[in-house]
Each structure stands twice: as C-alpha cells, then as structure tokens.
Design goal:
324 residues, Arc Repressor Mutant, subunit A, D-Maltodextrin-Binding Protein, domain 2, 2 domains, two-stranded parallel ribbon, 14 strands, 27% strand
Length: 324
Amino acid sequence: MDPIETLHSFEQIKLLADARRMAILRLLMAEPATLTQLAGDLKQSPAWIRHHIKMLEAAQLVELAEVRTTGTVTEKFYRARAGAFLLQQLVLPKSKKPTVIFSGSHDLALEGIAGHLSRRLVLLSLPVGSLDGLVHLRMGLCQVSGAHLLDPNGEYNTPYVRHLFPDRNVELITLANRTQGLMFAPGNPHSIQGMADLARRNVRFVNRNRGSGTRLWLDTKLARLGLDPQHVNGYGREVRTHSEAASLIASGKADLALGLQAAAVQHGLAFLPLFEERYDLVLLRENEKPLAPLLEYLQTAAFRNELNLLAGYNPAHSGEQITL
C-alpha cells in the first residue's frame, strides 16, 4: 500500500502550481515511467520532460526507481515518492507582531478579543467546528482551538481532549459559559414553542456543520426526542457559524436555527433559551509564548466587562484552567 505524503514546504507546493509538472507527477503516482513514455503521454519532447523531472527530483517529489539495460539501450524509470500528496501550507501575513491561528468552534467573544489585541498580535480565525478544530490543533494547523463538546456523561471537552492528545501536554482554559437556544424571526410568526417544532414541514431549519458542538448537541437531542433528522426541513442545510445562521433567518431565507443568544440579539431575532454550555480554549503548552497576550487578557476585568456586553455570556468562570 503506497503512502500519502503531506507537503509542508511552500517551495514544493509552488512547484506543483505548474500544471505541466503536476501532470508528470500524477502519471508517476500511477506507475513508474521513462522520459520517452512520459513524453508520449504528454505529447512533449523527452528533453522537455527531463527539465521538469529534474525540478521534481530536486524537490524530493520524484525519484529514480529502476535502470534497465537491454543490449545497448539503457532506460531510466522514474516514480513519485508517494502514492498521493496532501498539500498543506498556511500563507501568513508578514508582520512584526506574532500571528496566531485559531481553528475551532465559532465564538462571538473571540471576535472582540481579536480586535482588542490587534496591536499586540494578529489573531486569525478558521471556524470549522469543535471536533475539526481539535484535529487541526493536533495536526499543527493552528496554535489554539475552541470547543464546547458535551460527552454522554455530561462532561464538557475533557474526554475529547484526552482521547485526541494522550501524548501531548495540553491546557484547557474556560473562555465563558454561553447560552444556546432556538433563534427565530421577531414576533414568532411560526409560533415556535420548542424542539418539537423542528419536525414541522412548514418551518425551514438551518443546521450547523458536522463536528460542531452545536450539531452534536442537536443530534443527541433529536435522538432522545425520537425525532428523525430526515423529517427536519433543512437538516442538511449547513452553515459554519452562529452568525451565518442568524443572518439567514434575519433575511427571511430560513425560519429556525439552534445557536447563541448573542447571535440572535445581534441580528434582532427572537430567542428561546435551551441550555448553558462551557466553551473552552484548547492549546498545547509549547504554544503558550505566542499566545501570552491572549492568555493574559482572559484574566482581566476588561475582558469580563466585554463578555457582559454579549447576551447570554456568563463570565463567572472565565480564565479558569480545567484539569485534565
């Protein structure tokens, strides 16, 4: 079984931006070939192929697989160094300030924090949901993640972190407790009363992406209520943030969503609270230095005052470290 190799080098990725070299590499992933064979497949001269092969060799994407001699004819067979390549490279701004990548569950308070700390660091956000955010942290695609994952025993985040990072020194710090519930149009034109209304065919629901803490809570709740997701009008319609869901309702493109009270208030929506959750920041201790401005800010009265301005945010435990 051929391996898949992850490319982290910008030079390798830049080399493959050329469609001609990508075509050569893809042929050599399938099977070894000579310059003459490649030239025939791509309708180019062997000299043209040799030029690009040398560049792919120098980038350690292609290697000499075999040399065959038949009489006076010597053939060199080249092959790709992996069965497939995963392109993975973050292009970051060039700045004197440290750049920190956040990947995880969307949070409105973090958006405010990014603005407040803009003079000290560049905080960039990739909202992918709680589970994928932890995977990104594990893969080194970010320095900090955010999660609100409730396990079947009623514990937030720690079981998932223990499972994904058994060999790493990980730190969990509570950002805030947040209220989630049903968001719908002001005046409640569809007479929304609770979760059972998701099964009504005349109510257009908008869902969160797979792997988000909100989606996992929803799926668990639907199972307990005996509601088939297939009977929810809009279950397969997904957005990545609470703000996107609220915006669709505010514009009349959806009728109902599960999301943050703060997002509902920001978009002038009605809101039915359902539960309070704990939202934690997750980081590797080796990343504490670039994250120092963020971690220090979580301990300040200014941060708690900022949280108090967001509907449904409870700062009582903000900044507390969670024991793993």
